[in-house]
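Practice problem: predict the structure.
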Amino acid sequence: MLESKPTRNPSQFENQHYLKNMLYLGSIYKMTKQAIIERTIKIINQLPESKAEEISDFADFVIKRYEEQSLTFGIQSIISNSQSFDFLNQEVEIYSEADLKKKF
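Answer:
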């Protein structure tokens, strides 16, 4: 009795080949945003629903982190360009080394 080998779905094989080539080419050439989106959609379409939800959750996490970083950078830019703390640069020294009782 001959055992049959599992056959691959041609579309899966073609997609895997395509993805490997894209990963290789991606390391040489910068992919456009649209190409990245299309590649990601092809991958997601091959996954079960639970894994697609994981990817969706991860995308939510990434966008929230990006928004937080953008907000933090914006606040830092506003603060660094403001004159609110300029008075600290003009602070008069009221103590000197002579005021120290012990030097370490």
